[in-house]
């Protein structure tokens, strides 16, 4: 462990302002860590809270309500905030190299940079799709789409052409995002007295059903909702090519093509390319392999948490809830590492509660075989999410 023999403070570098690191920063702000200098480097100064993202798209929350102000949180924790993107690390020299050209040194490194949707297309196809991550990039495209839809709606229904939106990815994020976008755009059309039926929706998934990790009743519930909302569902449709205004997949009768104005990509995620190139232990999806102490396999000075980490003995779905739950044990182990004490194991829960909304302030709760649904579930989720965000808005003794 790096407890400095020289007496100089240890440099702790947090890479990425994800769900685990925001908890770490809050913890270290509440109980400052003596003998360590803390730096947070993150590509975004405002980090989104994933649970509220569909609600933001649906128009239930504004930008500030769903983002955590990282410089302010870092200041609370006594940490230096650096707005930059890490593009590689040198384990020998203990340096993190950033896109701007600067390098940051560390004695202890912790990585919480999330994941990126895997886009199995050539470079040309990739240029025409809108990946949901990074969220900041998605948000810009979403705001542009909103504007485009408003102009189309304002142009009137006579001789106006439809707007077709295709979402690729049938997991909870894809389904929820489609329903939220649809709810919002239909509202915009209705306000401008345009016919919302001019908005056409398609959901494509390579699997045989949507929400494959959820129970049958949950899958049936969402299939019913999608049907009632006029969403065309394409199952077993692995998209393998795309261009300006179209996408293609191999169906049972050969290649099938769909014309779409917007192609949103929300598929299974992988780890960032630089993690794979780092020489650190990664799994087949490019995620860092971590043990129960959240140290990267074979490393004593490097920790990882959230989507970018795969717990070797406890494989779990990629979900913000696990990233959040790793925050406290990670803060504890960083503290122990600085003090030269033994680290403690973290064992994530086996089952977790997913609250998946349908855009219209209605949600489905899903946990293993249990499920329930209603507007009350959405209000419950809203209460949980707002309470989480208050942890960072109402910092003890802090300025608002
Ligand atoms: C539409 C949608 C809805 C979702 N809804 C839910 C939900 O309701 N519940 C749930 O549990 N999960 C949900 N998820 C999944 C959830 O988003 C992820 O599991 C969660 O965001 C993972 O958190 P994280 O902390 O690992 O990473 P992230 O939240 O992705 O945070 C990563 C941070 O690191 C920064 N960063 C990235 N790369 C670098 C770099 N190279 N250098 C420096 N900084 C970097 C980013 O700017 C960001 O601040 C949803 C996902 C989507 C797409």
UniProtKB/TrEMBL annotation:
<dbReference type="InterPro" id="IPR051169">
    <property type="entry name" value="NADH-Q_oxidoreductase"/>
</dbReference>
<keyword id="KW-0285">Flavoprotein</keyword>
<dbReference type="InterPro" id="IPR017584">
    <property type="entry name" value="Pyridine_nucleo_diS_OxRdtase_N"/>
</dbReference>
<feature type="domain" description="FAD/NAD(P)-binding">
    <location>
        <begin position="12"/>
        <end position="314"/>
    </location>
</feature>
<dbReference type="Pfam" id="PF07992">
    <property type="entry name" value="Pyr_redox_2"/>
</dbReference>
<dbReference type="InterPro" id="IPR036188">
    <property type="entry name" value="FAD/NAD-bd_sf"/>
</dbReference>
<dbReference type="GO" id="GO:0003955">
    <property type="term" value="F:NAD(P)H dehydrogenase (quinone) activity"/>
</dbReference>
<dbReference type="GO" id="GO:0019646">
    <property type="term" value="P:aerobic electron transport chain"/>
</dbReference>
<keyword id="KW-0274">FAD</keyword>
<protein>
    <submittedName>
        <fullName>NADH dehydrogenase-like protein</fullName>
        <ecNumber>1.6.99.-</ecNumber>
    </submittedName>
</protein>
<keyword id="KW-0560">Oxidoreductase</keyword>
<dbReference type="InterPro" id="IPR023753">
    <property type="entry name" value="FAD/NAD-binding_dom"/>
</dbReference>
């Amino acid at each position: 462990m790096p407890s400095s023999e020289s007496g100089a403070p240890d440099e702790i570098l947090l890479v990425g302002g994800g769900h685990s690191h925001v908890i770490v920063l809050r913890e270290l702000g509440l109980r400052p860590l003596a003998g360590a200098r803390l730096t947070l480097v993150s590509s975004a100064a405002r980090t989104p809270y994933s649970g509220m993202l569909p609600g933001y798209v649906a128009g239930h929350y504004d930008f500030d309500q769903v983002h955590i102000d990282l410089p302010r949180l870092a200041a609370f924790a006594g940490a230096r905030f650096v707005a930059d993107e890490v593009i590689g690390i040198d384990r020998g020299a203990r340096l993190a190299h950033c896109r701007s050209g600067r390098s940051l040194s560390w004695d202890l490194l912790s990585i919480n940079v999330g994941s990126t949707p895997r886009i199995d297309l050539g470079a040309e196809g990739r240029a025409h799709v809108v990946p949901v991550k990074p969220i900041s990039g998605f948000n810009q495209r979403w705001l542009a789409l909103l504007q485009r839809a408003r102009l189309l709606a304002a142009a009137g229904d006579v001789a106006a052409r439809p707007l077709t939106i295709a979402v690729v990815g049938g997991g909870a994020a894809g389904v929820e995002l489609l329903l939220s976008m649809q709810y919002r755009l239909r509202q915009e059309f209705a306000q401008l007295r345009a016919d919302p039926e001019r908005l056409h929706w398609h959901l494509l998934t390579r699997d045989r059903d949507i929400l494959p990790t959820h129970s049958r009743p949950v899958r049936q519930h969402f299939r019913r909702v999608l049907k009632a909302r006029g969403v065309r569902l394409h199952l077993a449709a692995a998209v393998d090519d795309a261009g300006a205004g179209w996408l293609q997949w191999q169906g049972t009768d050969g290649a099938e093509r769909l014309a779409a104005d917007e192609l949103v990509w929300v598929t299974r995620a992988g780890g960032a390319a630089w993690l794979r190139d780092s020489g650190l232990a990664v799994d087949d999806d490019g995620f860092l392999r971590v043990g129960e102490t959240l140290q990267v396999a074979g490393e004593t000075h490097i920790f990882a948490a959230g989507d970018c980490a795969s717990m070797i003995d406890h494989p779990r779905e990629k979900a913000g809830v696990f990233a959040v739950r790793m925050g406290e044990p990670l803060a504890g182990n960083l503290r122990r590492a600085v003090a030269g004490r033994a680290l403690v194991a973290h064992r994530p829960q086996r089952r977790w509660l997913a609250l998946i909304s349908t855009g219209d302030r209605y949600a489905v709760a899903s946990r293993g075989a249990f499920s329930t649904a209603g507007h009350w579930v959405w209000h419950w989720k809203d209460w949980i999410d707002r309470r989480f965000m208050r942890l960072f808005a109402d910092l003890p003794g802090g300025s608002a």
